[in-house]
Design goal:
The protein has 178 residues and is an all-alpha fold. The protein has a domain of 44 residues. The protein is elongated and about 85 Å long.
Length: 178
């Protein structure tokens, strides 16, 4: 009786291997289909939206990657600035300035500011702060404060510049006078 069971077990074992192989192929097919579905879903999300989400999560390098992809898709070129006049939408330049600021990349900030016909006061403040040019940043912050005297952010900008320049006495007197 034992030899018959061994033969039956052997036959059953080959059937199980065949089923396992079929199940593995089915699983591979299902996995490939899932991967395809997820890839389609990710491709449907605009790169600009992914760049914004990455920026809000402080993943600045990933934000730059997605935004560069967005720019390439929009222009259809690998280096859009090389084939065109190099003019960009101001919102795009502003977003790139914020990304490069998060990356702590003063050279990139300086280069990006050249993409605009004229740098905004906020651009100049950002570039000077990241480059460590606190005297220039203070001048820009004071100009911005004159334009928006009620802005708390402008007051904080001036105080931050004074602090970084080491003018603690001026900082204290400004704090006490308010």
């Amino acid at each position: 009786m034992a030899p018959i069971q061994a033969q039956a077990g052997g036959t059953h074992s080959k059937g199980t291997r065949g089923n396992a192989k079929a199940e593995a192929q089915l699983e591979a097919t299902c996995s490939a289909q899932r991967l395809k579905n997820v890839s389609k879903l990710l491709a449907a999300i605009p790169r600009q939206a992914l760049a914004g989400a990455s920026f809000r999560c402080q993943a600045y390098a990933r934000a730059l990657l997605y935004f560069e992809t967005h720019v390439r898709e929009e222009s259809g070129a690998l280096n859009p600035a090389a084939e065109t006049s190099g003019t960009f939408i101001d919102e795009d330049v502003t977003f790139l300035l914020e990304i490069y600021s998060g990356l702590d990349e003063p050279d990139g900030l300086s280069g990006l500011s050249r993409l605009r016909k004229s740098a905004t006061l906020q651009d100049q403040i950002l570039i000077n702060e990241k480059a460590g040019n606190w005297a220039e940043a203070l001048t820009c912050c004071e100009q911005a404060l004159q334009m928006e005297p009620d802005s708390v952010m402008r007051h904080l900008g001036v105080l931050d510049c004074l602090l970084n320049m080491g003018h603690l006495q001026v900082l204290l007197s400004a704090k006490l006078n308010k």
